[in-house]
Write a structure and sequence with these properties.
By secondary structure, this protein is α+β, with helices and mostly antiparallel strands. It is about 30% helix and about 35% strand. The chain has two helices and twelve strands; from the N terminus they run ααββββββββββββ. The strands form two sheets. Strands 1, 3, 6, 9, 10, 11 and 12 form a seven-stranded antiparallel β-sheet that branches. Strands 2, 4, 5, 7 and 8 form a five-stranded antiparallel β-sheet that branches. Strand 10 and strand 11 form a beta hairpin. The radius of gyration is 28 Å and the shape is elongated.
Length: about 220
């Protein structure tokens, strides 16, 4: 199964700030220890300062790395904002998305599957997150692209509950060799989400990465 973007809590933007504050606290502690050791050292046997010098260099290097990471986060944020503005032109349009998973919320899910060559047999199934087959039917066998629309009806006649579901197409040639189909989802784009760390599109079938969009299409 190819998963959709997970519905997760967006990454925190305070990571760089927390890291800098923690480094600052550790550096202050280090300076206090260093000062105390210098004040209490034996004048006849002064301590070797080379290790402290090395640690000072390491602290400085880490601090610079944190600042660099913070600058990169700022650049990425600006880039995502620009991408979000550009993607706003997609709103209201239908897209074919490279995914075999889709969110069911009462409206039919529109899947497509493409066979690279003619098949002797094919079976289309719909599975839940646990891999249980909820629906199955005989699929198309001709090479090319085919539509499959599932309205949530299960094999037992009941309607599936809201949640994510996946299409699976099993096809075989005349000699029994497995044929590997390509599957996608047709969904209407309703929003742009920049909280996942990369541009994502909110659609009628779930939230997907912009990079998974194959093309804009008709319904």
């Amino acid at each position: 199964m190819t998963d959709m973007i997970s519905f997760v809590t967006p990454p925190s933007t305070s990571t760089g700030t927390n890291s800098t504050a923690e480094l600052s606290g550790n550096f202050d502690t280090f300076l206090k220890i260093l000062t105390a050791q210098i004040q209490n050292q034996d004048p006849l046997q002064p301590m070797d300062s080379s290790q402290f010098t090395q640690q000072l260099v390491q602290f400085s290097g880490v601090e610079q790395q944190i600042k660099t990471n913070s600058s990169l986060d700022t650049l990425i944020s600006a880039s995502n904002s620009t991408a979000g503005a550009a993607l706003s032109g997609y709103l209201g349009q239908y897209a074919e998305i490279n995914s075999d998973g889709a969110q069911f919320s009462g409206d039919p899910i529109h899947w497509k599957y493409s066979l690279p060559s003619d098949a002797a047999t094919s079976t289309v199934t719909v599975q839940d997150a646990a891999g249980h087959v909820l629906y199955s039917e005989t699929g198309e066998t001709a090479a090319g692209s085919h539509d499959f629309i599932w309205d949530g009806t299960q094999l037992n006649g009941q309607t599936a509950s809201d949640g994510p579901y996946w299409i699976s197409v099993i096809a075989k040639s005349q000699d029994g060799t497995a044929i590997t189909p390509q599957q996608s989802v047709i969904a209407k784009i309703s929003g742009v989400d920049l909280s996942y760390g990369e541009p994502a599109l909110t659609t009628s079938a779930g939230v997907y990465s912009y990079s998974d969009v194959k093309r804009l299409t008709e319904q």
